[in-house]
């Protein structure tokens, strides 16, 4: 067995996860642009290409038989090349575009057949939309832009400005109330867009290529900001992008679209490691997996092997029995106290020392979300496994050099380059 493996002194129980009721259900959604939808669909079912259908009918099959569900507080990414149908699908969810057929359920209400009044109410209360081009009103101040939705709803001036100021703080733009849109950078404009969408406290945010117009650095900053806001506010987000890196970073799940259909829905890991067909495979071929896989994906879970009050002789015996090179020692609250290596245990037994004397306190730690690329230098420098701890410093497991390299090798990475 490997000299790099470890066992740990305390049991870690997995938290139970209750099934979450989907907030959005889309059933057999189809949208055809043009005057002959039935004929276009018939041709599609007969196996004709989009182009052939367009040439024959003048109609475009933009979406065909789309079905999926989005869980409450999930970030669901619609990804695909230009023309694959992402924006049309997003806009069918709030009926900015009318579906040709199919159903869209939002929080238990079917909206495709809903009357205008009820639809307006759902849009106002449940749905916020954020566009790529910001869509700010040029002659209004930042504050007035943010408060605009509330103004339309007839909310009194004082209250809407109070709410708008609150949202402005939330997106990190406090102090810019009186600025005009053309005085703001792209990133700031999109923060205003976010704040505006959040004023009515919608459960769902629909974001259409919201960060695509931003410089790469600002774009990454906004992605982080969105993840942070998502963590704090727990909104459900449907995020459209053609950028795979962005999809992988933001998405709890990703739906990859091609020519109006969803070719695969899965977590970023599933999309990367188990592509369902050649198209997905080609789409993800260039992704650097070290940025995608995390410590949580490759860690060995903590298992109890002994009371930590056990002496070095017990520690040594355990390491020999399990053929491992070190054990982690935790307190009763699973707080990581340190690490005991095989060499130190041998030495302690010889010299009659206590476990405390041989405990190495300065153990490298990472969290389950640390990417493998950030761990590689740590595990390369360290002969012993790195501890994986939660935010409170409790031990969850360990990551060894062997586990990292094996994960990379399994995914076809050149492990020699990183070792
Ligand atoms: N208003 C429209 N009239 C006619 N065809 C349309 C219309 N809107 C979209 N389409 C067509 O529907 C298909 C899907 O377009 P859609 O804009 O949803 O794709 P997309 O994946 O969002 O692409 P992009 O990233 O370029 O916006 C395309 O073939 C497009 O040409």
Automatic annotation (TrEMBL):
Species the sequence originates in: Methanoculleus receptaculi
Question: Where does the ABC transporter domain start and stop, copy by copy?
Answer: 24-284
SUPFAM superfamilies tied to this protein: CBS-domain pair, P-loop containing nucleoside triphosphate hydrolases
| Protein name, per record | Glycine betaine/L-proline ABC transporter ATP-binding protein
Q: Which residues cross the membrane?
A: none
Record Gene3D superfamilies: CBS-domain (3.10.580.10), P-loop containing nucleotide triphosphate hydrolases (3.40.50.300)
The segment(s) forming the CBS domain are 299-355, 359-415
The protein's matches in InterPro entries, at most eight in alphabetical order, are given as: AAA+_ATPase (IPR003593), ABC_osmolyte_uptake_ATP-bind (IPR051921), ABC_transporter-like_ATP-bd (IPR003439), ABC_transporter-like_CS (IPR017871), CBS_dom (IPR000644), CBS_dom_sf (IPR046342), Gly-betaine_transp_ATP-bd (IPR005892), P-loop_NTPase (IPR027417)
Cite the GO molecular-function annotations of the record: ATP binding; ATP hydrolysis activity
Keywords for the protein's UniProt record, in alphabetical order? Amino-acid biosynthesis, Amino-acid transport, ATP-binding, CBS domain, Methionine biosynthesis, Nucleotide-binding, Transport
Q: Its domain of life?
A: Archaea
CDD domains the UniProt entry points to: ABC_Pro_Gly_Betaine (cd03294)
GO BP annotations of the record are: amino acid transport; glycine betaine transport; methionine biosynthetic process; response to stress
Looking up PROSITE patterns in the UniProt record yields:
ABC_TRANSPORTER_1, ABC_TRANSPORTER_2, CBS
Which family does the record claim for this protein?
Belongs to the ABC transporter superfamily.
Q: Which Pfam family would be a valid example here? A: CBS
């Amino acid at each position: 067995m490997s000299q790099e493996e470890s066992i740990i002194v305390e049991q870690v129980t997995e938290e139970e996860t209750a099934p979450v009721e989907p907030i959005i259900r889309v059933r057999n959604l189809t949208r055809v642009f043009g005057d002959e939808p039935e004929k276009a669909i018939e041709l599609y079912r007969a196996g004709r290409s989009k182009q052939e259908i367009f040439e024959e009918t003048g109609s475009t099959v933009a979406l065909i038989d789309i079905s999926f569900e989005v869980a409450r507080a999930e970030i669901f990414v619609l990804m695909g090349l230009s023309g694959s149908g992402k924006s049309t699908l997003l806009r069918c969810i709030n009926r900015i575009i009318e579906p040709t057929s199919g159903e869209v359920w939002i929080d238990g209400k079917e909206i495709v057949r809903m009357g205008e009044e009820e639809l307006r109410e759902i849009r106002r209360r449940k749905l916020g939309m954020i566009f790529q081009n910001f869509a700010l009103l040029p002659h209004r101040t930042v504050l007035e832009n943010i408060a605009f939705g509330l103004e339309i709803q007839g909310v009194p001036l004082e209250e809407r400005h109070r709410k708008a100021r609150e949202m402005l703080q939330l997106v990190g733009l406090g102090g810019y109330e009186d600025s005009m849109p053309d005085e703001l950078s792209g990133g700031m404009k999109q923060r205003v867009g976010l704040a505006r969408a959040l004023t009515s406290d919608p459960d769902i945010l629909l974001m259409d290529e919201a960060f695509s117009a931003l410089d790469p650095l600002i774009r990454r900053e906004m992605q982080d900001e969105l993840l942070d806001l998502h963590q704090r506010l727990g909104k459900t987000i449907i995020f459209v992008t053609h950028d795979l890196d962005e999809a992988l970073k933001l998405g709890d799940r990703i739906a990859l679209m091609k020519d109006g259909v969803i070719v695969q829905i899965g977590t970023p890991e599933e999309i990367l490691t188990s592509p369902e067909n050649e198209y997905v495979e080609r789409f993800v071929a260039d992704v650097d997996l070290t940025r995608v896989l995390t410590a949580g994906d490759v860690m060995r879970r903590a298992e109890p092997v002994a009371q930590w009050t056990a002496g070095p002789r017990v520690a040594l015996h355990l390491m020999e029995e399990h053929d491992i090179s070190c054990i982690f020692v935790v307190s009763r609250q699973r707080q990581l106290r340190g690490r005991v290596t095989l060499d130190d245990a041998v030495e302690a037994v010889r010299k009659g020392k206590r476990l405390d004397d041989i405990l190495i306190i300065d153990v490298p730690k990472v969290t389950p979300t640390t990417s493998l690329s950030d761990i590689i230098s740590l595990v390369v420098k360290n002969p012993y496994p790195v501890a994986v701890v939660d935010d409170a410093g409790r031990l969850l497991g360990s990551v060894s050099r062997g586990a990292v390299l094996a994960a990379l090798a399994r995914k076809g990475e050149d492990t020699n380059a990183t070792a």
